[in-house]
Amino acid sequence: MDESGQGSCVKLIVGCGYLGLRVARCWIAAGHTVAGLVRSEASAESLAHEAIRPIVADVTQPSTLRDLPVTDTLLYAVGYDPASGTSRLAVHADGLLAVLDAVSPQVRRVILISSTGVYAEQGGGWVDESSPCQPSRASGRALLAAEQALAAHRFGDRGIVLRLAGIYGPGRLPRRTELAAGESLPIAAGEHVNLIHVEDAAAAVLATEAHAQPPRTYVISDGHPVERREYFAELARQFGLPQPSFRDPLPGEALGRRGGDKRVSNARMLAELQVELAYPTYREGLAAAIPDF
Length: 293
Fold this sequence. Notes:
Blueprint: E1 10-14, H1 18-29, E2 34-38, H2 41-49, E3 53-56, E4 71-76, H3 88-102, E5 109-115, E6 126-127, H4 138-152, E7 159-164, E8 166-168, H5 176-180, E9 185-186, E10 192-193, E11 195-197, H6 198-211, E12 216-220, E13 226-227, H7 228-238, E14 246-247, E15 263-264, H8 267-273, H9 282-289
Parallel strand pairs: 1-2, 1-4, 2-3, 4-5, 5-7, 6-15, 7-12, 8-11, 9-14
Antiparallel strand pairs: 10-13
Helix pairs in contact: 1-6, 3-4, 7-9
């Protein structure tokens, strides 16, 4: 029985993709039942092979969300597909509200995956959970709207917002084609990138159940921002690719820059969630991805 006396609850992951799938595997290994909401039958079949209970639905169509299982923990980790024909706001904010209105009242934790792209431009300065949010891009604005929607909802006092730095790991290493071809990358000197390995991001999600007291917001990062040029140089070195060349970007051409040049602190994550990073810097994370390159 769960704490409400309503019987067994499941962990519900809305958007069971790159991060969500890893969280699901961890929950299953711990003995939990996990349901994953995806938009296609093909994705549902893949989840079934992972012992995840598949639910085919679309967060932008509330009528498809009528039969969600009784849930104690909801993880909203929906990515945006530009080919979907919907707006980022519809997916991240409106979709989250639709799921919150459809989910069982027994839900005790709502974990929202957001991004450090919600922060204002900082000119390379440090930001943390208390820093101003003034996103310059549509993705950051949609995620900030989702955070605000969660806070204003009746389940807002159960909400945990995780603002992820750039997530990377096996199968997600950017600019491999350009590096292999020896193309010059449009990256300004001194610009920083903040990173978190996907396995460490999954560990942070799990840690919120053990240690977080909602409502609460956390920056999820390895805490070691690196200059973007240095990152690509190290990626090329570890993977045996030609050392990259760089040039100043033209307007609108810069790689990255989801929310301006900044360095994000993970002090609250370490202190409160007690996450022990398996990949404390990008160097260890890149080395672990070599077999999958």
